[in-house]
Amino acid sequence: MSQRSLLPFVEFRLSDSKGDLLERISKLEYENGALRTEKRLLEQSSDSLKKRYEDLLSRKNEELAALQGNFDYVFNQRKELQSKLQNQKDIAGKSSSDSLAESSTLKKENRLLKQQLDRLERLYNSVTGKCEHLRADLNRELSANDQYRDQVKVLEKEILRLSQLNDDLTERLRMAKRQSENGSVIKTAEDLRLRNMSLQQTNSQLQAKVDLLLQHKTSVELLRQKCASLSNKVESLESADRRAAQLEIGRLEIKAKFDEYFGFLAQNLEGGDDAESQDAKVSSLLLDYRGLQNKNLVLYDKLNQAQVSITELTQSGEQLIAKLEQELEPENQKLKEELEKVQAELKELQKIKLLNTREIEFLRRSVKELDAALLRKLSASSENEDKDKSQATNQYLSNLEKLVDDYKKEIETLRQEKNGVSVAPLAPTKRPRILEDDTHVFNTKTLRNENIELLSKIKGLKDEVSILKNKLDAYDNATTQTTHILELRKNPFNRDQLVKQETLDLLRKENEALITKFVNNADVETVPMALFARQENDKENLQSKIDQLNKKNSRLTSVYTDKSKKIMSLVSKFFGYSIEFVPSPMNPNDLCSKMKLYSKFQNRNGKESEACYLTLDPMVPTTSATYVLN
């Protein structure tokens, strides 16, 4: 097509003919058809471009909506993570506040213990000073007591000498009385009497000194007892001092553990001023916490494996024990048979022993009867009886004594055979007769009774000391013993924690997959597999919660229906009314606060009897409920 044919106007020529006009018309028709085809092609191309751009725009809109949803999800996850971070911060702050409160309580306890320790030290120092003073006083009193004892001995000797002199003087007075005819003798007797009176005064003075010495001796004994009690108090204070030292050591250990556990967190939280550094520290702490949780899980698995191995070892030990019992069963049977034989022999020996003891008792009774008969014969007979009878009785007694000795030897041999120990038989000895003085017997009895009382007191004090030692050991064990927390393997709390950890892991994987997919790829048409896995996990968790709630709801409804039936039956039984709840006028599926009370004594078959009921509305805001009788 030429440039000329494309012009929109028609060129008229003056010299054209009809054929030229026809040719011109055909050309114009051809150009018109070409323009129409070109227009149709342009319309088709524009339609295809429009459709392609519309498809591209719809696809981009879908991608934009998906990205908007993903960004909303990521934004929500960010909010949740921020809330969790805030919760962790609150928990960390609460734990730090708890730890600070615990440290303050420990400081208070430490202060109280220090005050108690100072008080005990002051008391100990005062008691030790008093004890030293008492020891010095006791030593001084003991030395004085020794001096007084020496003086008492000297005075006793002087008293003996004066008593002898007094006896001589009394003898001389008697002689002077006999010779009282002479006046000089009377004068010497008067002098001797005066001298005797002076000696008696000195004797009374010496007796008073002796009494003072005895009183001093009793005071010294009391001081000794007091010193012993103070020494016991000193020992108790020393034990209290040791206990305080142990408590101080325990407090230092607890303080070291506290500094080790909570010092790092407190230093980091106090050191950082800006929020970003605190967030970084908290995130690092959370990472450490998760690492510790993973380590705890690994150690828990190892513990389970160790428990399984322990159970296997116990089973193998039980099998070995059973095998050893089977192998040692014949030997046990033999030993049992031998034991039965030995027990039978022991029973026979016991029977023999009983017979021997009875025979010995019979012989003793016969000897006593014979002695009584001999005494009666000796008292009744005179001095001129024959000596042959006495010799025969003596021979009979000697034979009886030999027989008793033989029985004793046999009993000793049987006892040796029974015990398996060779013990030399005791030679028979006759009981010697004891000649005792009444005062000596009385003194020994009183001393024996005092000894028994003192032994009983000592035993009671030893028992108290052992009880206190046991209590102290138990308290020490309770303070030093570590507490072990028993945790079930299928603990619901641990299961919940595992579910939360699983959801967190799935969310983390989903975020990582979304980030990698949208960052690395520009054109994204598919969803990551982690998103589907997370959604499935959420569905499973929700379904499990729904099942649990349905079970709980069904259980509660069944319990509610049973209890309501029981209550209604009890009300109708004891009060004579059956209860009917009125449906709500706003919602027929719900109940209102009104109730109808029908008497079970009324016949409800007729229409009039059905209208006889009592309406109760306890929710009316008045002081008393309203009762309407229809």
Concise account of the structure shown:
By secondary structure, this protein is mainly alpha-helical. About 80% of the residues lie in helices and about 5% in strands. The chain has a domain at about 575-600 and about 610-630.
Give an account of the 3D structure.
With 630 residues, the protein is mostly helical. The chain has a domain of 47 residues. The chain contains 8 helices and 4 strands; from the N terminus they run αααααααββαββ. Strand 1 and strand 2 form a beta hairpin. A 4-stranded antiparallel β-sheet has the order 1-2-3-4, with helices on one face. The N terminus and C terminus are likely disordered.
Summarize the topology.
Blueprint lengths: L17 H161 L4 H89 L3 H106 L6 H33 L18 H43 L11 H29 L8 H46 L2 E7 L7 E9 L7 H4 L3 E4 L8 E4 L1
Antiparallel strand pairs: 1-2, 2-3, 3-4
